[in-house]
Amino acid sequence: MAQQGITPREKDYSQWYLDVIAAGELVDQSPVRGCMVIKPHGYGIWEAIQADLDARFKATGHVNAYFPLLIPESFLSKEADHVEGFAKECAVVTHHRLRSKEGGGVEPDPASKLEEPLIIRPTSETIIWHMYGKWIKSYRDLPLLINQWANVVRWEMRTRPFLRTTEFLWQEGHTAHATKDEAIEEATRMLGVYRDFARDTLALPVIPGIKSATERFAGAVETYTIEAMMQNGWALQAGTSHFLGQNFAKAFDVTFQSAEGSLEHVWATSWGVSTRLVGAVIMGHSDDTGLVLPPKIAPIQVVLVPIWRKDEDKAAVMDFAQAALESLQPHFRVHLDDREKMKPGAKYFEWERKGVPLRFEIGPRDVANNAVFCAKRTGDKKFGITVDDDFIDRVRTELNSIQQGLLDAAIARREANTHTVSDYAAMKAQMAIAPGFFLVPWHDDPVTEREIKDDCKATVRCFPLDAQDQAEGQACFYSGRPATHMAIFARAY
Amino acid sequence: MAQQGITPREKDYSQWYLDVIAAGELVDQSPVRGCMVIKPHGYGIWEAIQADLDARFKATGHVNAYFPLLIPESFLSKEADHVEGFAKECAVVTHHRLRSKEGGGVEPDPASKLEEPLIIRPTSETIIWHMYGKWIKSYRDLPLLINQWANVVRWEMRTRPFLRTTEFLWQEGHTAHATKDEAIEEATRMLGVYRDFARDTLALPVIPGIKSATERFAGAVETYTIEAMMQNGWALQAGTSHFLGQNFAKAFDVTFQSAEGSLEHVWATSWGVSTRLVGAVIMGHSDDTGLVLPPKIAPIQVVLVPIWRKDEDKAAVMDFAQAALESLQPHFRVHLDDREKMKPGAKYFEWERKGVPLRFEIGPRDVANNAVFCAKRTGDKKFGITVDDDFIDRVRTELNSIQQGLLDAAIARREANTHTVSDYAAMKAQMAIAPGFFLVPWHDDPVTEREIKDDCKATVRCFPLDAQDQAEGQACFYSGRPATHMAIFARAY
Asked: Regarding the domain delimited by B418-490, which CATH topology (the fold level of the hierarchy) does it fall under?
């Protein structure tokens, strides 16, 4: 099989991203425009993300449920902002049967036309709030803390694997509360869960903040976001959490009787992350050799490669490798690459491109030394690890050090590419040299935001939660008016 | 909240099933015809099923992947049997955008009509074999052992929660092999995985067998099935595994170069189980009080109910309950029901209807005894369990005994309702008294099978794998011709 080269980041960052994905066998194009096939190695990353996040959701009191894929067309227009801003580019189901066509093939049976078309969910607020209307009667039914793992479809014109696809996988939390304060607390709590998860599991330091009105979720009162910096200095929105106020409760007439006996509309949040996170990880850590994965989400954390030249060495090497495999298996995701007729070098090449954090080479000399010869995906000289009582601990230490090293590098990169500027000209000049994050005093205004986007392609990524007290008394870096916020501007995916 | 009664099984088995589901808060009807909302307690059962099965798939060498929800219409007609027998009642996507309608609301935008309609997958053989055609070149690429967890849509006219719904959740394994023998071995291996899972996890003894031509999957050469008996003596198909021969490989032109250098079509299997299994568990074990769940898939295995009358007892009871919760949590799915203003009796009632296997009542006297007072969902007198060093082991023993007891009862019920008859009149007479499984010598023929179905509603559930050697020399119980198989006839969901 011919090996495809990987375009260096410096040469063409977009092509590099596609090459890393192809070389890592993460996805393939499907015959359906904008829909990707997630191959086993790519899906394994998503499974690790799911398992970690799901435990965090449950630890914060949430339960999972499942709502229908199909939504009646009329539901979408019940929340006016929601449909205007968001819900129109979607897949519409109009028939429920195929019939044979003259001359072969099939076609939609006109007799099966639906009275009301159905929409494949682009997000589930509408159908979930319809159901919540049936379930919520009293304050005793609140809070309702439900999450769903699901696929959604948004018809996209320009797609890019993981980052923007017509169908994608995600989780969507939908919670209902008796008070405004409680709902805001929930929305910010889940933002914190996302921030911690991104840092501790994905090794991505993200900036938690508030979206400007321009980028707010259609139907939300406030949208919270975590923004990650990619290696080219661009921003990637990695997750959002919305305080929905009473908008959906009013649209679907969901009220509850309070402890005091009054009838009130319910307060809501929703929050989600998607397979886009896999794209964030790829762009955040990989190098010109291919995929680099944080150990916590690597589908394979350790690969064992047995090596022998002479046939008489084979049995001893394979026995040793098998024993090492069995001792590692209870603790790590480990794989023994016992393919015959494939040279060790070709195996190394493949596992590097698949981002496996640790590779253990096992030859006759290693067996004699009762050791494995360890290569780290993130570099450094190879070194031996003795297979003794401390073996598991030493492997764990190496994986932890890779995980921490990736986070440290990402933090350093972000700091090096975050600029505090006080006037727009300085940002524009720097942006032309190298994109990055620009923390600036800002008078929030969709008109000036649009001007800046048209002029230098940068947009407000967020108002960082921890920087807002700096805005007071400052002048907007663009308009000179009094600053209402501190904002981060960046180019974004 | 008014408590809904549960219709006794004897009175109306179908209504009993719906009542158990409603009382257990497992699903709710959605506004989309035939689609159910799976509520948290119902989804928790599916999550436990998924976790157990997924580990079994991985232990047998399979990996997960994800293929698109939408399939080009033309793909469905590539395998002729597949589309004729199966793939026509499905949701058809014809447009990709909504537009605002005069007078309010939205409608499909005529300008967004798709050149080729897309189908929501009713099953994924076609799109997966299209992709396998890109991935498989050489015998080195085989076997390919991939599973997918996904939602599918089949437009159903008559639906019943879990057992038959327009959208359902399932897993579908799709494997590719170099030889016929290897593919048959895979199909039967996965049937064995399903049989073991049904017995050991769902406490359902199932009969593994082969489907008659009438009930074979459209596109398969051979369909293997596991058939479970419900409490009313009806059969429920709980899982199928198909040997697909080279049918899909030929339809999608998937060939490989063998080790000897020749070009050959690939051999295939597919196998799946769905949320239907939740229905099988409900029907298989529940009683007139409500849901009964095997501990291995109960979302809550142990519920703790603290009880106090006097305020001065509250702190001690709650502290003891909290300590018990923390000691149990690492080992079991456990819940502390600390709702205030709700009487213990109402809590017992709710958890019984939700099928929680063990309930621990904790009052001041129990605290004084350093014990919990244990009620088993499956009956017997309540008894104390001392909270000492053996606490976890004793709880585990009780859960295991419930699990085993449910399996034993199901086996006894099946044996009591399985009849060996040698002529059709005997089956028909017995069927009129009480349905059950009828093991009979059978000359396989779709025409006589249809006659029997029309006459007494019984169909061939399967040819049991372990009974086929009994057929030799026998006469068909219906036609008198030489028996080709031993068959199980039953009424079926």
From this structure: Translation Initiation Factor IF3 (3.30.110)
